[in-house]
Amino acid sequence: MYRILLVDDEILVRNAIRDSIDWQAMDCELAAVCENGQKAAQFVQTHPVDIVLTDILMPYMDGMELAHYLHDNHPEIVTVIFSGFGDFEYAKQAIRYDVCEFLLKPVTAAELRETIEKMKSIVDRRREEKTRVAELARSLEKNRESEPLVRSRVIGDLVNFRRTEEESLEALAELGIELCAPGYRVAVFDMDLYTGTDLDLEKRQESAMMAAVLYNTADQLTANDGAGIAYQEDGNRVFVLFFSEDREDAGRILERCVQIRSAVKELIGMDCSVCLGRRVRILRDLCVSHDEAVKGLDMRYLLGGELLLDMEKIDMNQKRSIKELIQDMQTSLKAADPLEVRIHISRMEEFIRNTCSDKGHACLYMQQIIAGAAEAVLEAGLQEPLLDTEKEEMMKKVIDQPSLQKGMGLVKEWTEHAVRLLQEANTNGPARIAAQGLDYIRKNYGKADLNLNEICAFLNISTSYFSSIFKETTGETFIEALTRIRIENARKLLSGTMLKSYEVAEKVGYADPHYFGISFKKAVGMTPTEYAKKYRGKY
Questions:
Q1: Is it true that domain 2-139 has CATH number 3.40.50.2300?
Q2: What are the structural domain ranges in the chain?
Q3: Distance CA 171, CA 91 (A)
């Protein structure tokens, strides 16, 4: 039996849905009917629910907010959103809240039955996954107190300061382990296949099994001659606490790391990466070696898999700026020279690799390059309508790439796109003049006295000629373009800030708040106050 919660503020809609479905024939139960998201959220706190069918526009808590609440607090519940035509595109953004289906109103009984059957399948899959996870947890719990796991927990406590040094040494002594080496180094091993992606249940189980092979291999190859102690922390990474006699034995320890990695590759045919933290002499500094090793492993994004890295040879504090390289690229872009642009992109990719940053820093650098290319297009006087949107999408795509190589591939595509835009602009005089005029408006729309004479003086062109080519190229007059840009920015300020209407008017170039109100309502269909009340905080 599947329990369904219906949420809609229109009583006629609620009654129609309730009466149009033979719930029992579908092995379902209509658990409750709520008139808004707030009541629905309260209901699921105390009653089991499998599927929520909700409208999007409701008072107190709308369907989007309800989906957000269910995603964060009741992820087992499957959510379906009903959406009117006007808000359907907006509703699709709720995919980040794990909404499983969108239905455009009005919904027929046949559509609803078909959707419920699909949602029942999703509920079944989630129930099965929950059962498998519980079984896996029980299996792991049975082995939790095995000797290797006890040892791992004790060493992990020592390295990460979860217990005092005295308590940890006492616990290790009970296991027959004595730590009295002149120095120590922590190495971390991780399977490359399971890095940088979200894993489903099957992959998590597979990863755990591969980690067990890695652990057993590391344990055997270090314990045989007393080179160190293998242990695991939370997750599937394997650590080795190596005993270091002096600073000259780094080669011996790295050789042992290579032996472990090669043995694992021979056993299961998979690559793993290794990073070795710096040598420390006292136990309370183990965390330094451990944290460096973990941080170094993040360099796989930059350097690729099957990594073997000694952090004593890496300067993690290297600080450089990519700004000059971006400026060189912009100069080549404005000249529309594709060869020079490619050269600068290669230099920046090498720069990013040499900084030894983690993925977050690398993505930030790549986003700066993307933004720099877009800025070069704008500064050249070319305003592409979709440029800002395309730029934001490209920045998001870069973050999703599993390696620097793939991320820079997208950056290269973007800069090649910028070169093509600038090449077209350089061969199209009137279009370039119109683009420069539009760019000037975008940069100066906040000036209340901005006028056609000022732009034409800036471009060194007559007002009649500019007006003619601007209208022909953009499809708008100067006043129409200025008004549109001012209203666009006013909408952003009204929805994204707490500014009053008269303050917004001033910022977008209207000296008279009353005239601003008239212009805004004519363009948008509602007053600035009404618009702010409806959309503030939603974008």
A1: yes
A2: 2-139, 147-313, 323-425, 429-535
A3: 56
Q: pTM for the full model?
A: 0.43
Alpha carbons 443 and 238: distance in angstroms, whole number: 54
**Class of domain 429-535 (CATH, top level):** mainly alpha
Residue 53 contacts residue 6 (beta carbons within 8 Å): yes
CATH architecture of 147-313: 2-Layer Sandwich (3.30)
Intra-chain end-to-end CA distance of the chain, in Å: 39
Pseudo-torsion of CA 74, 45, 79, 133, nearest 10°? 30
Q: At what angle do helices 463-474 and 452-459 cross, to 10 degrees?
A: 100
Of 295, 285, 296, 297, the residue nearest 158 (C-alpha): 285
Q: For 381, list phi and psi in degrees, rounded to 5.
A: 90, 10
Amino acid identity, residue 192?
D
**Mean pLDDT per 10-residue interval, the chain, length 539 residues:** 92 88 92 92 93 88 87 87 63 63 81 90 86 65 63 88 88 88 93 64 72 89 88 85 86 90 87 90 91 83 76 62 81 80 88 72 84 81 67 84 87 89 68 83 93 87 83 90 94 90 94 93 93 78
